[in-house]
Amino acid sequence: MSSLIALFPLEVVLFPGTPLPLHIFEPRYKEMIGECLAHGSTFGVIRALEQGVSDVGCTAEIVTVTKEYPDGRLDIVTEGRKRFEVLHLNQERSFLRAEVLLIEDEPGIPATEETARAVQLHSEILTMAGAIQDLSAAD
After folding, report:
1. Does 45 or 125 have the greater pLDDT score?
2. What pTM was computed for the model?
3. What does each C-alpha distance from 88 to 50, 84, 101, 120 come to in angstroms?
């Protein structure tokens, strides 16, 4: 099922569960964030590209407003929630919106071979860096 959400194009990639502090100062984004706060809704963070935006983004929930300025600017902390795919861009408002399809992540246990390969690559990186891993605190 698809839904229409507001988009905030940035030169970052947001992942589910990752915090993202933002300073909101442009009038169109002050409007967008104001609506999200009023309705308790999320918005989409999507990577801004030279020619448009990425096809995949992540919804962001406003966790807290850390500062409100007299001119309407805001400092907020958001956190990534769900990945989405852009189906159709909508430019009817002052800020970009899109019809999106939420992507359900499928958590799972990695295959034994994948885990072994990751451990091997980590060890090789440590060797190249001349570092030694201290696992004594992990017990």
Report:
1. 45
2. 0.74
3. 18, 12, 10, 42
